[in-house]
Fold each of these.
Amino acid sequence: MAEKVRQTLANHRRFDPLYHFFALPVTALTVILAIIHFVHRPNWFSGWLIVFTVAVVIIALRTRAYPLKAQDRIIRLEERERLVALLSEPLRSRVGELSEGQLIGLRFASDAEIPDLVREALAKQLSRADIKKLIKNWRADYFRV
């Protein structure tokens, strides 16, 4: 089995080639072609083809978004448990103040970095992206969908 590439801020986003580089472009192109077809041959079927292809695009997007949202909820739960175990008072009692985005960003931080990052995230209301940029010792997540 091939070794996994060390994950960093620069390469942590995942692309599913069949979804991102085939299914989405094909459905988007089909909407464009359906519109062109309607312009050249306006009739009820050409109109319906536009409606149908837009519905397929929506289905494709929602099919990806729903599991990502469920995964974000699981990450939120995991990170809250992790933070409660790693933090001491008064930070431990403030874990509930962290937003979903902040919790998701913190999942990449090493255990040693967590207290300082949580303190800074709460004080400055850092975004997920800002937190990720501050991480020095990246904790990889290879299971993201």
Note: The mean pLDDT is 90.
Amino acid sequence: MKNKRSIKLLTKTTLFYLIFTFFAFFLSAIYLTREAEDFINDELAQRFNYVERKVRRQIHEGKPSKKPSSSTLLTELAVSPNLSENPFYSDTVMYNTDTEEMQLYRKKTIFLEEAGIYYKLEITKSLEDFYRLKNAIFGALIPAFIILAAAIILFNSLLSRSLYNPFNKILTHMRTYKVGSGQAIKKVNTATTEFRKMQQLFLEMVDRIENDYRNLKEYTENMAHEIQTPLTVIRNKTENLIADERVMDKQASTVKIIYDETNHLSKLGNTLNLLSKIENHEFSKAEYILTRSVIEKHLESISEVARLKSLQIEKELSDKHQLYIDPFLLDIVLKNLLRNALRYGSPEGPIRIRTTVDSLSLSNYGPPLDENSEKIFERFFRKNGSQSDLNHLEVSYEYGNQQHHFTITDIQQDLNRI
């Protein structure tokens, strides 16, 4: 299963803040638009009411004028009007002689009555200035948001370099820490409470891990040392039994099993020490090694055993193939692969070992595994070689055409080529 793509905390915070700011600006735009509409309506209402009061006063004084102003028209009616909608408003487009262009106007029509005489009063006011102001307010929000968003991104970028610098240093210490290396971890100076807590927890964790590692290593070394004495006694006694023909005539298979298992136990202590060192990355002398000469040396050492088991070995080795690995670990990997090829190989076909610039592969004929192939890389599984995931090595296995195929790829070299 692939890991989901991760996002930095500051980037995620900035993104959320920008989304929040966008919606805040959007809601603000809606609010300001409504406020502008209310302002326009209130301002027009005041102007309409002013003209209406002025005309009413003139009518009451008996001095009605058909054209009280350039935007007002007063008409005397011969019959009484329908007062069900009084007053009523409408928006219309009219020609403005001053600007010599068509503009939007709002008209208020109201019916007035004085001494039994009805008048129709029409008042028009231009909306251009009001809507120009409204559009200017709304349009200013967009560049304001862009400027604010750019300022936020720039500020957070500068902030990440200073505020998160201690955090990144602590992460570097976590990434480079190796158990049992004896390296001193320098404390990072920071005034941020959360970073201090994280660093303190990390240092406490390192102390616990180092203490547990020392105890485990001491126990493993002591066990491996102490077990050698009784095993040596058992092996010597077993060798005496092997030399006794009377015993071997009756219990040859039993004695041989005891002798073989004793040797296996004798090697177990060293194996446990090796596994412990591998798990704790104590093999730090990794280097680029051209594998051809190393592989040929191992093939020469097993050639006699292969001949006795009637197994042929075919090789196709590249002079350019190399692995970035500790030399001791490379020997262990090759010994495991070749040992298992000899142990479980079949004379039906040869053992093939091949290297290219990118990979090392080894195959041998034999029946398929009874167990799940995924178990082949478990540490103490008896029907296989071992997986080595050190120094970015990836070991893969597949079975096909009656052959077991192992392939070793140096992931680090593949990444360097990208």
Note: Residues 379-387 have pLDDT under 50 and may be disordered.
Amino acid sequence: MSAYATAYAEPDARAQQPAGLPRLLAGARAGGAMTLERHEAVHGSLPAMHRRRGRAAEELIAEIERAGLRGRGGGGFPTATKMRAVAGARGRPIVLVNAGEGEPASRKDRTLTQTLPHLVLDGGELAARALGAKELIVAICESAHASVESMALALAERPRGVPRTRLMSVPARYVASQETALVSLANGGPALPTFTPPRPFERGVAGQPTLIANAETLAHMALVARHGADWFRSVGTAANPGSALVTLSGPVAQPGVYEIALGASLSSLLDAAGGLTARMRGVLVGGYGGGWIGPQQLAGAHLAEELLAPYGATLGAGVVVVLSEHACPVAEVARLARWLAAQSARQCGPCVHGLDAIAASLDHLAGSGARAGAPRRIEELAGLVQGRGACAHPDGASRMVRSALSAFAAEFADHLRYGACEDCLRASELPLASR
């Protein structure tokens, strides 16, 4: 299967566009937001809904369930299940659009909110109407200035009414866009994850049941409501139907945000980006909480959760980072582990102590102070932090490290035996700086 590139990274002429794509990115143009008039010319007006709250909710949820839409923020949770939980909770629901995008290697949510704000707002408004929500909150990273401006202009274009809609600025930190951190922020607290229960669908913003959904998830919902479940399932895999946005970076001719049919081969994505500009050492799939795929496995890799599982990887928030042959994977993983440890909310032992211990061991391995058995010790530490934090931060960090130990076993063995290599001194190819 092929991938499809947006206007931000035009596909190579040799790459074949799969039938039915683009969807989310239809009509997208670099350099500005789609106006409401242009948006409705491309997608049509927002579908009408049944007037009774309960019936409207069930109709929309049933269609989303038939479509098989899963969250595109990283967790991949069934969207219909989450909506049904909110619909069944006591209180007046609130809908929160998560476009915080704390993942440094991701640009898909910024692409949506900056260029296609009305599609995101359509999904949020549909969910809010169906659930009877009194308020719609759109959470955007504080550094995404163009997205904030585009969203504000889009809101000014739309008719005022229910739900009341407001923008919320999210700090540019890795865990700040975690759903309980967003609830805390919306309630006037710090953008830090909190222990659950209660879950946001039970008691979230202002103590009300809250649906928190990624911007891309809601954009898909807006299209499912227009075109139906069968249309949505006409691309993708049986287990993971539909399309997804992927941010591709590294030594490729045209890095950018691409829309793919789920299940597309990794090689087709690279072809759509004009191919590689350097030989690759490996690929990080799923972002900084995802998994590494070594060069010997790349030929058979396909981008869907069930197809990535054998590699210990996940598509997550749709991030694919190619590592060039010039990079040292041991040094890259050590730097990334240290950055992830520094991004901890400093609330839980697994993050405060566990991630720091993992990073320290990797620092030694990437330098000259590693001891025999260091990879085994790192593996043990990674296993100890899993499932023990207030959020999934330690889980994702340990998954990334464990996959690296497998994908780059030869490089780790060489560092253990000979110490640092000359490529360890190169600047990181992974974007790690705070935005």
Note: The beta strands are 3-5, 94-99, 135-141, 164-170, 210-214, 243-249, 256-261, 280-285, 291-293, 319-324.
Amino acid sequence: MKRKTLRFRMMILFCSVVSALLGASYLVFWGLLAHEIPAQLNRQLVETGKPVIADISAEPNAHDVDRLDIPGEFFELLDFNGSVLQKSNNLTVPISFEHIDAAAARPSFQVAQMGGQTVRVALIPFRQANQPRLLAVAIPTLGTYRVIDSFARIALILFPISLLLTAGISIIYVGRSLEPIAALTQHAASMAKRVTNSQGFWEPLPITSPHDELGLLAETFNQLFRGVDSAVRQLRQFVTDASHELRTPIAVLHGETELLLSKPRTSDQYRETLSIFDDELKKLTRMVEGLFTLSMADAGQLQLQREPLYLNEVLEEACALVYSRARTKNIAIVRELEHEFPYSGDEAFLHELFLIFLDNAIKYSPNDTSIHVTMLQHDGTIRISFRDQGIGISAEQLPCIFERFYRASPDRSGEPHSGGLGLAIAQAIVQAQGGSIECQSELGIGSTFSVILPVVSDAKIDTFGVAKQKLIIG
């Protein structure tokens, strides 16, 4: 048996609840009516008998009851033995009481028969000339109880009509209420099909009622789809760029291997080919390690060691490592590190961070220029700046330089300005340290990358070394 739809289950639940409420309401109203009508009759009987009792008590020897002839009202004067002393003129047959309580001190009420007619009777005790008496006041109940019977018949007719109306209203209301969910389902199915067919992914779901629960659900799904769309696009672009970057060194290795195996080679040729292998394998290793670092950063699992160090010494070591590369282009690295900067961080990652900016500065700077490296402390932060005299970056390309494998437009020499994973890794390291990166650049003038790190006040470092003075390398 197939499972019922949500619309059908909501309609059944809605109708069941309404039918239970209607049935309970009808029963309660019928019970109140069945209780209140006899109560009203009892009060009416007592009020009718009060003036008659007053007349009888005032004139004990008069036969006032015998002269009464009120349409629809019947009277009998009884002693406490139940014998009829007087009766109204319109009472042709005696009233057949169910029972008579001679010791009753208050009015009692009962249903009696009077010549085949059902009447409501009130037996009101009083004293006439110091003699206990009962005045029986009766009125027919046919019309009164007919109201209760009519209400029951009307309720039996209205109940199924109410259920049908409730079912119709619930079908319309539930259907309209579930329209956003149906639209959301179709929207999600459409997006799944687009993802499968590699088409455009995200389109916003229309929101008809932004303030109700379904509107909020649709807005939440829109935000989710927007995030998923961005992630999928970035993933596709990343896979495309990564495969492109990896294809070049693999193609070089494959070509060199075929060339090496095509015929016997001398030892110098083997050594030269192995040197090419080594360079390409180093490129692949750096790329794989960079991808691993970025994947750990994306997962929030980039584990940084917190160890006491001096930032200026780590920067000095990085400058020393790139010194030979800078000298081949006659580039001077000017370090302005006038103070020691105690810090608590991961020395290996900070070392890699500084090398990234130094390598880029050397790579994109022309010969016979200089790179200025400064480190300052201000307003609770440490700012490390790398200023070069390179080709610069255009304003429209600045927001994209930290994207993975992003390549800006090539300069006049035909060489693209940026590419690979370096700046993306740098940004991941700095963010993991709780800092940020700023970049200022002008085409043809140069670029300045600034790493801003928070000051670690509780860094406990043993004093070693001396303050660094202004040095010029190159």
Note: Confidence is low (pLDDT under 50) at residues 411-418, 458-474.
